[in-house]
Specification:
The structure is a single chain. The chain is globular, with a radius of gyration of 18 Å. The protein is of the alpha/beta class and 276 residues long. It is built from 10 helices and 9 strands. Strands 1, 2, 3, 4, 5, 6, 7, 8 and 9 form a 9-stranded mixed β-sheet that branches.
């Protein structure tokens, strides 16, 4: 198992313990859960939560009756997730999953592709997800939008900093984001159309793509909407109605791509993972 030591350090400092539970990041969590609830097979089904962090999604999946195994390369995440009722967890790498062929009904990759700037590594992770699910099983993968860093920088006012501006413009051109603000955060940001090509090259059927937050994550009062039960449901419904509009996909901070695997892999396996 190989993980960039800077990325490992970033997550070992505990940033994922609360990220999706507070502030406007709750919109990402709620919309991910919303899409998954509409696309997953009914419980009980076996779900591999690959790169599942501290178990923010594994927790509700287990509560709703799914059999959940979380696999993550960060020891802190595995320890936190192992304490959740109904969730098993172990160390592992998305590019070399420690599971037999066709073991799962669902493979979730809700974070691993964020940190794989090498396309061969991303294809390997997608191919492993394909291998791990049974015929008729589901693969769901999360991506950071190519334009998310620039949008976020304007939202927070960081764009006035030359170093930050240069990093974000570089990310827009190449997809590779090395943040001057978040020490150790090295990410890969996807153009929405790029997702389709990577699925195809990994032997996966063309996915349905969902823009999770739409433009709503950029609204200054989004926290107020999320804090109010009635307004929150209105916001989620509005985002649902726009989620697959092609012209708006890149505006979302995050995207989810979901596909069904109808046949066992027949091609030769992708190259083994390289160090990142």
């Amino acid at each position: 198992m190989i993980l960039d030591p800077d990325v490992l350090g970033y997550y070992e400092r505990g940033g994922e313990l609360t990220r999706l539970r507070h502030g406007r990041n709750r919109l990402e969590f709620l919309r991910t859960r919303d899409v998954l609830r509409r696309t997953l097979p009914p419980a009980p089904a076996r779900v591999l939560d690959v790169g599942g962090g501290t178990g923010v999604h594994a927790e509700w999946l287990a509560e709703e009756g799914y059999e959940v195994e979380l696999i993550d390369p960060v020891p802190l995440h595995v320890r936190e997730a192992s304490a959740l009722p109904g969730v098993t967890s172990r160390l592992g790498d998305a590019r070399d999953l420690p599971v037999p062929d066709g073991e799962a009904d669902v493979a979730l990759l809700l974070g691993p592709l964020y940190h794989l700037p090498d396309r061969a590594d991303r294809l390997r992770a997608l191919s492993e997800a394909r291998r791990a699910v049974r015929p008729g099983g589901l693969v769901a993968v999360a991506f950071i939008s190519r334009y998310a860093a620039l949008h976020d920088s304007v939202y927070h006012g960081y764009l006035i900093r030359e170093e930050q501006r240069a990093a974000e413009y570089h990310a827009m051109e190449t997809g590779v984001m090395i943040s001057p603000r978040a020490e150790g955060f090295r990410g890969y940001l996807h153009d929405p159309d790029e997702i389709v090509g990577e699925f195809a090259d990994a032997g996966l059927p063309e996915p349905r793509r969902y823009g999770l937050e739409g433009a709503f994550w950029l609204y200054g009062d989004v926290d107020d909407w999320l804090d109010d039960d009635e307004r929150r449901e209105l916001l989620l419904d509005a985002a649902r109605r726009l989620e697959s509009e092609p012209s708006l996909l890149g505006v979302s901070g995050h995207l989810l791509a979901v596909t069904t695997v109808w046949a066992r892999p027949s091609a030769a396996p992708a190259p083994r993972p390289a160090a990142t």
